[in-house]
Amino acid sequence: MTDTRTKATIRTAGESDATAVTALLIELACDVTRPDVERRLARLVDSPSDQVFVAEVDGAIAGLLGMHFAPLLHRDSFARITAFIVTEAHRSRGVGEALLREAEGWALARGCTQIEVTSGDHHAASHGFYERHRYRLDDRRFVKEEFP
After folding, report:
1. CATH of the domain at 109
2. Residue 44, φ and ψ in degrees, nearest 5
3. Residue 145 forms part of a structural domain
4. Is residue 138 part of a domain?
5. Number of neighbours of residue 66 by Cβ within 10 angstroms
6. What pLDDT does 3 receive?
7. How many angstroms separate the most distant Cα atoms in the chain?
8. What is the dihedral of CA 112, 123, 86, 20, to 10 degrees?
9. Three-state DSSP class for residue 18
10. How many domains does the chain have?
11. Of the candidates 16, 50, 51, 130, which lies 20 to 30 Å from 107 by C-alpha distance?
């Protein structure tokens, strides 16, 4: 049997990764531009509550995972996956799993007892990935985008 897993190097994203990160977010169907990503990466790089990991394969960025750490009043801290994408060419080869393991370690080191992720119905293939990694469907999310 041939091993189709890819060796990925996981590292923290930097501002110089803006072009690759922009392309990944566009593949994820996010409406972003390079200046948007440059500005946001600059802010996140300095944030003690956020982390953006990238997976490099053969010197090119093949995936990213953004995390946000949130201390809570009503229970121990949790982390939220804010963005997660692996290029189509590297899916089902262990790149996403490597990113997820790194992110889970980051959350555990901060005392998080839960990680949550939101995944739209149009990302059905991702749902199976999360379930295989012991994430379960829970609750409902309400969003308000326009407010004073």
Report:
1. 3.40.630.30
2. -70, -35
3. no
4. no
5. 22
6. 44
7. 59
8. -100
9. helix
10. 1
11. 16
Interatomic CA distance for residues 137 and 49, integer angstroms: 25
The larger pLDDT score, comparing residue 73 to residue 85, is at: 85
Domain ranges, residue 63: 9-132
- Amino acid identity, position 61: I
Residue 2 lies in a domain: no
Mean pLDDT of the chain: 90
If you average pLDDT over residues 28-32, what whole number do you get?
Answer: 89
Tokens of 74: 């009503």
Whole-model pTM: value is 0.88
Q: Rounded CA gap, 98 and 7, in Å?
A: 9
Nearest C-alpha neighbor of 63 from the set 35, 98, 37, 32 = 98
137 in a structural domain: no
Packing angle between helix 34-45 and helix 18-27, nearest 10 degrees? 110
pLDDT digits (tens, 9 = 90+) for 91-138: 999 999 999 999 999 999 999 989 999 887 778 888 888 889 998 988
Q: Which residue in 42, 134, 118, 28 sits closest to 81, CA to CA?
A: 118
pLDDT at 29 over 90: no
User: Which two three-digit tokens encode residue 36?
Assistant: 């948007």
DSSP 8-state assignment for residue 94: T
